[in-house]
Amino acid sequence: MSASVGEFLQQIRQLLNKDADFGQQCSTSEDLCRLLADGEDLCCLLSVLSNGRISPEGDGTVSFYSMNSEMFGRRNVKFFLSKCVHEFQMKREDLFEAEDLLLLRRPDRVLTGLRRLLSLQGLPNPANERMPSVASLDYQPLSCASRRQSDFIYSEPETPAAAASTPAAQLENIVSEICHLQAQLVDRLSLLLKFHGELRGPLSEWSSDLLDSTFKHTEHLLQVHEYFKQQLDSLAESKSAANFCTNLGSMFLQVKPRLSAVYSKYYPDYPLAKAKMEEAFQQQPQLRRQLELLERHFNAESFSILYDSPSKQMFNYQILFERLHRTAEKELATISEQAANSVELAVVECRRLLSHLNERKRYSEQEAATRQILQSIEGLPEHLTKLENVGLHRGDGQFRATLGKEQRALVQKECFCLLTDRQLIVATPAASSNGSSQQPWAFLFDVSLYENDLQLECRAGEPGGLQLKQSGKGLVRFSRPGAKKLSAGVGASLWTQLLEVRAANLPDGWNSGGHRFRRVTFEEGSECSRCRETFAGLYFQGYHCDHCNQQLDRTCLTAFLRHRPVSYPLGGPADSVASRCQQLVHDHLDRWSAERLLRRSQPGAFLIRQSGEKLVLSIRWQRAEAYHVIIQQRVSGSTGSQQYSVDPKNGIWHQSLERLVTHHRTNTLTIENVTGICLLELLLPSIYENFN
Questions:
Q1: 104 to each of 29, 100, 183, 319, how far by Cα in Å?
Q2: Is residue 36 very low, low, confident or very high in pLDDT (cuts 50, 70, 90)?
Q3: Beta-carbon neighbour count of residue 568 at 10 Å?
Q4: pTM for the full model?
């Protein structure tokens, strides 16, 4: 224990003395997080910092879980921070939050908090000694007991290496860290394959089924990361961080399809495989002991660290790319703007990939839930046992239904109701526990996405009070078993809400602007027209417009509908002026990126960006400030067309964004709390223009 605490303190000192950018060495950051998640080490660290005031044995006031696990890590860190506030008289805002460290969400704040903690500012004199002197603890390789308080205060390195804190040096360090992170993962995956080879041996007690699920994707992960490592090493061969940044965006775009193909299968299977492995460990403890023996044999990290490392890799890429981009922004004097834009492109694409993978994981969980529900329903036709024919589960419940068709009423039946994004299934539930049998049956209602003739009718005085009717299908009335009589509309709320859920599969505007999107199943390997990602899910569902032939996933469809009107083939044409104005609007540009662009531009430079559901005009005025003005929108009462204004108080409205810009090129733009002339001069291009 003492050795690990000493090592922990040494790692903190190395971080503080090396650079102000916490987490510059990614492996060190992981080790720090792991140590801080261990309650025993935290408790001993408090003992060292408080000169024995807080006892690691515990005195009724310290209650750490001495378990290095993700479950207790958050609790340990929170308790650790609260003790620091109480014992060292520190303010909570002077430290950091547990998530800032465990998720590396705010590494800069973590570093600042550690500095303040190690300097022990405001520490009161200890009232008494609750344990033997810490001098008796042999900390190796750093003897904390022999250090004075001033030894823990951060100081700049005495060597000329202090220049390493410059943005240029930081850029080089982050580049080497990216390459090191990738090489580390390749080594871990190679080691996992060695574990796999040993566990397949004749003396192994691991079953072939358990081995197949545990190591299902290891070989493919190794192949794609070896390829990624080759690409990174080729960029780093020039020994120029500027060259690395310039080519990082295009290189990541080249590698991204391979990463997506492997991780789209790995992400959904990883939690299932890990749960299956843990269940096997509980039933057969000798399997875990065999892993421990192999860890000693290979002199390797714990198997759990090796096995979990691919699941964290994409998030690590995003963190490192973001740090590289922030540092590149500080070093624009020595690297080109194209290099900074290339790094930003890598950041954006990495975020999109993570979003896609998380969406794929959610699809997989929903597919598993739908399969489980389908297995509990008897009497389903064979084709409805396949997900590609049924769709994904949206809601279910146990009801009493009165069925009728062609004016012939059927008896009431206890039934199971399953709502998917394609149809409503009313069917016989699983056999009851008392052994009573009934003729299995299933009654289906098509739930189409827009041309839907499914009618809902609330029936007063009936429990449940809801009747569904569809042409050619008959009707079904629902009531809740044992429910009290409810007024009209109240009892129907449950299934009304469930049926409204399926409408959420199409975002608002799916049939506006001349579009007519519908949800369809594409061929395997089909790509979204916008982000070029393959469609997720078991049956590759996405959205297709019958008029413009675009095929999009849900995320891209929401963004696409904002700015892509098309001519309606049977109705009136879309506003041609509005269609020409779409180049004015930047889809993926936040406030920070807009200000960065404007800072490097002349006064009067402007752009229009999307912010949620609103349009914002960002402009650089005579000084360096960037101003952001919300563009007001309204629908004209006389013509029904959209109008825009940044000066609605004076009643100035324009029929299009283009006319608004033209007007304010020659007429002063009114901005609150700003005096002087403010005209729109130069429209800035998108920062992604060179990469699309």
A1: 9, 5, 21, 8
A2: low
A3: 16
A4: 0.45
